[in-house]
Structures are given as structure tokens and as C-alpha cells.
């Protein structure tokens, strides 16, 4: 039975693997060079490498699995025009890297290591996702227009600068902080109908500076910024529409809405939320109460 299952699995996997080209760190393009990938490919970085400033480019219908198991430094560019690019980093990354995701493409970046770099994500009519389970420092520039960029932090973001820009009625950026943000500057700009949601429901954030702007409209949609925050969010300096504001409402747990002084329609909203315990936490707590009640009954208390 086990042999039949293994043979059946091999029949499924072998054709899939045979359709993918296998590349290594030696194939990364140098300065002024472009690596055009026209078939499903796997890129495995098993030795530390200096990416010399070249461009990796894929088109519609192509899937690339990029696995960094060692370390990458230098400068690199990724252009995804309608394909699917999945980057998983288990090794440190240090340098400057640009990602341009267009044409209904999908770009996914999952970081488990140390990311000390300047990252630039430009999303035009595509979907970009960045997940951090490690640590991020440096500068993260995100520009989204005509689709959505999602950023999820489970690890640490420290000594960083976050520049988030949502353009147009369909430009959306969603930032979920489930970890820690500290010693960081965050600049948020929603314009021409763009929207930014910064969800700090489950994480902790201490901003050196937090700047927010929401202005303009497109196709009847007004720009907006929404921050959901718990009791572990603070800002040493808060600026809304360029004006310095008292950030005490963050630590006191009060909601606050700022209306655009020019248009009166676009707005910046801060909503205080109380985290809801996860089902597993509730279950463990309930089991604990049941055990405690049983122990008391057995001892006659």
C-alpha cells in the first residue's frame, strides 16, 4: 500500500519538477544585465552572494520560487509583469532592492532572517504581500495603485523608516502589526482616493515619529487612513496633515478623527480596539477553570 502511494506521488511530482528550470546564485545578473525568465523556475541561494545590480524579469504565466538559504547583499531589481514570484528568505539580506509588480502579477516575500536593507515595492494593478517573521531595519518604501499591498509583521521592525503611499481609488495598503515596531519613523500618504489601513490590534508599536496625510479623491472615492490601535501603541511625535498633534489619545485609548482641512471629505481616523482572545486561549482558560473546580470539589473546598 505504501509502495503504491509512493509511486503515485512520484508520478505527480516528477513531471512538475521537470518543467521547472533550476538556477543558483551564479545566475543572478550583474550591473546592466537582465535575466529574462520565460519558464517556471526555481532559484536557490545556497552560498552568500553579492547581487551586482542586475534585473530579474518574468512575464505572465510564469512562476518563480526564489529561496535564499545563505545571504544576499548588494543591489537587485525584480520586475514581475503578470507572473507569480515567491521569495522566501532564511538568510540575511543587506543592500538595496526594488520590486515592480504589474499586470495582475502576484509577488510574495516572506522573511525569516535579518533584513537590513532599503526595499522598494511598487504595485500597479497587481497583488504584493510581505510577511516578516524575523527582523527588519532600514527603509521600506511601498507605493500601491490599482490593487492591494499587504504587509504583515510577526517579528520585529526596529530602527526603520516606513513610507506607505496609496494612489488612486483602487490603491490599497493594509499593514498588520502582530509583532513589535520600535524606534521607527512611519510616513503614511493616501491620495487621489487611496486608502491605508494600519492594524495594531495584536501588536505593540512605539513610533519615533508618525506622520499621516489623506487628501484628494478619484471616481467618487475619497482618500482615507485608518489606524486600529490597542493599549501598546505610542508615538513620540504625531503629525496629521502636516500639523503637530498631541499623541496622548493613543496611550489613553481614545478614538480620534481628523478631517482634511482643505476638502473636508478625506479623513484620518484612529480607533482604539481591545484584542479578542484567540479560540485556543479561551479553550485553555476554560479547561483551567474546569480543572480548578474539580480539584476544589475533590478536596472538599
Description:
The chain is mainly beta and 301 residues long. It has one domain. Helices cover 14% and strands 60% of the residues. It has three helices and 24 strands. The strands form two sheets. The protein has a 22-stranded mixed β-sheet that branches. Strands 17-18 form a two-stranded antiparallel ribbon. 33% of the residues are buried.
Strand content: over 45%
Secondary-structure element order, N to C: HEEEEEEEEEEEEEEEEEEEEEEHEEH
Helicity, as a percent range: 10-25%
Low-pLDDT sequence parts: 1-18
Rounded radius of gyration (Å): 23 Å
Q: What is the total domain count?
A: 1
Shape: globular
Gap from first CA to last CA: 56 Å
- Look at the helices and sheets and give the structural class: mainly beta
- How many separate helices? 3
Which properties best describe this structure?
301 residues; mainly beta; two-stranded antiparallel sheet; 3 helices; 24 strands; 60% strand; disordered N terminus
What is this entry, summarized?
With 301 residues, the protein is mainly beta.
Task: Map the helices and strands.
Elements: H1 2-18, E1 21-24, E2 34-37, E3 41-45, E4 49-59, E5 63-68, E6 71-81, E7 84-89, E8 92-102, E9 106-111, E10 114-124, E11 127-132, E12 135-153, E13 156-177, E14 180-191, E15 195-200, E16 204-215, E17 217-218, E18 221-222, E19 224-229, E20 233-235, E21 238-240, E22 243-245, H2 248-252, E23 256-259, E24 267-272, H3 279-299
Amino acid at each position: 500500500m505504501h509502495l503504491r502511494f509512493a509511486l503515485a506521488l512520484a508520478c505527480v511530482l516528477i513531471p512538475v519538477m521537470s518543467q521547472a528550470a533550476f538556477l543558483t546564485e551564479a545566475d543572478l545578473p550583474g550591473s546592466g544585465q537582465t535575466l529574462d525568465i520565460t519558464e517556471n523556475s526555481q532559484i536557490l541561494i545556497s552560498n552568500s552572494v553579492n547581487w551586482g545590480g542586475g534585473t530579474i524579469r518574468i512575464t505572465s504565466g510564469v512562476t518563480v520560487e526564489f529561496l535564499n538559504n545563505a545571504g544576499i547583499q548588494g543591489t537587485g531589481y525584480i520586475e514581475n509583469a503578470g507572473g507569480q514570484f515567491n521569495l522566501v528568505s532564511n538568510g540575511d539580506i543587506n543592500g538595496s532592492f526594488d520590486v515592480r509588480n504589474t499586470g495582475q502579477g502576484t509577488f510574495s516575500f516572506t522573511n525569516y532572517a535579518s533584513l537590513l536593507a532599503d526595499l522598494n515595492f511598487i504595485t500597479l494593478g497587481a497583488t504584493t504581500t510581505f510577511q516578516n517573521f524575523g527582523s527588519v531595519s532600514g527603509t521600506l518604501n511601498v507605493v500601491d495603485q490599482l490593487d492591494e499591498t499587504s504587509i504583515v509583521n510577526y517579528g520585529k521592525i526596529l530602527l526603520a523608516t516606513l513610507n506607505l503611499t496609496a494612489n488612486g481609488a483602487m490603491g490599497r495598503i493594509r499593514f498588520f502589526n502582530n509583532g513589535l515596531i520600535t524606534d521607527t519613523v512611519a510616513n503614511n500618504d493616501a491620495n487621489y482616493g487611496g486608502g491605508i489601513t494600519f492594524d495594531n490590534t495584536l501588536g505593540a508599536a512605539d513610533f519615533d515619529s508618525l506622520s499621516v496625510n489623506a487628501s484628494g479623491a478619484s471616481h467618487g472615492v475619497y482618500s482615507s487612513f485608518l489606524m486600529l490601535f490597542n493599549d501598546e501603541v505610542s508615538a513620540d511625535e504625531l503629525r496629521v496633515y502636516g500639523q503637530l498633534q498631541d499623541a496622548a489619545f493613543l496611550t489613553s485609548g481614545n478614538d480620534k478623527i481628523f478631517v482634511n482641512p482643505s476638502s473636508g471629505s478625506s479623513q484620518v481616523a484612529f480607533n482604539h480596539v481591545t484584542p479578542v482572545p484567540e479560540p485556543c486561549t479561551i479553550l485553555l482558560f476554560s479547561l483551567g477553570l474546569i480543572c480548578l473546580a474539580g480539584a476544589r470539589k475533590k478536596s472538599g473546598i
